[in-house]
Amino acid sequence: MSKVPFITLNSGVTMPQLGYGVWQIPDDEAEQAVGTALEAGYRSIDTAAAYENERGTGKALAASSIPREELFITTKLWNSASTTWTRDNVLREFDASLARLGLDYLDLYLIHWPRPMRDDYLTIWRTFEEIAETGRAKAIGVSNFQPAHLRRLLEETSVVPAVNQIELHPRFQQAELRAFHAEHDIATEAWSPLGQGKGLLEVPVIVAIARKHGRTPAQVVLRWHLQLGTIAIPKSATPSRIKENIDVFGFELDTEDLAALSALDSGDRLGPNPDDFDYS
């Protein structure tokens, strides 16, 4: 039985606070990786059309004996510049993702990037609202949206995003954006919660906290996310690390630990700036 707690989204849907992400896992390896994650106790799986591993993810879901209602599956619309994002194109892409995953519905569907220079995310979002009304997506949300992008959705559409999935880790804590989320009942979900392995887990402060609790640095950082109230989706293809990353419920960080981790915020992104990121 999984010990992962749940977050209640503004749509009333409950979502596991810790999930498994499959970014950069090749499609022919995704079935095994996702299968390992499910066996380890993960019930939330995060993929995207752009990851090109929805088929492999779907094979693992089909092979699992876990009832569909116990799983929480997220994918994302790759709203690239190569397509004019009309209602029909959004619906076509949604259907294609469902088909690749072998599912009848999604638990969460996200717009992958705002691409504000294209000025089409309002059209996309209104189509997402339509999808949600049919029940084929239990919740809808966004990824990488800044306060200005979210404010437009709040002012010009009907449904408040349930989730904003953003870059978030101790070196890039996004306090202003998280405060905006809290004000508007939008759940914060962290991608690259471990900083993509780019030196974060070797930071002496984190190593010292891990030693203090008899845990690994990765477990300390994931515990920080949980105590922050963030949804986290760590990614690994290594079975031992997949299991390690979900074993974060037997300890708590104290006030001193949390203050030390808070002090690591440098404001430096690992990924693109959503205000000017575009792609084909």
Describe the structure.
It contains ten helices and ten strands. It has 280 residues and is of the alpha/beta class. Helix 1 (27-40) packs across helix 2 (54-63), helix 1 (27-40) crosses helix 9 and helix 2 crosses helix 3. The model has no long low-confidence stretch (mean pLDDT 96). The longest helix has 15 residues, at 87-101. The N and C termini lie far apart (42 Å). The strands form two sheets. The chain has an eight-stranded parallel sheet. Strands 1-2 form a two-stranded antiparallel sheet. Strand 7 (140-143), helix 5 and strand 8 form a beta-alpha-beta unit.
Percent in helix: 25-40%
One letter per element, helices H and strands E, the order comes to EEEHEHEHEHEHEHEHHEHH
DSSP summary, beta strand count = 10
Enumerate the strands of the largest sheet in spatial order, edge to edge or round the barrel: 3-4-5-6-7-8-9-10
Work out the strand percent.
5-15%
Instruction: Kindly report the average pLDDT value.
Output: 96
**Assembly state:** single chain
Largest sheet: 8 strands, parallel
Measure the end-to-end span.
42 Å
| Secondary structural class | alpha/beta
Tally of helical runs: 10
- Cα Rg: 18 Å
Low-confidence stretches: none
Give the CA-based shape. globular
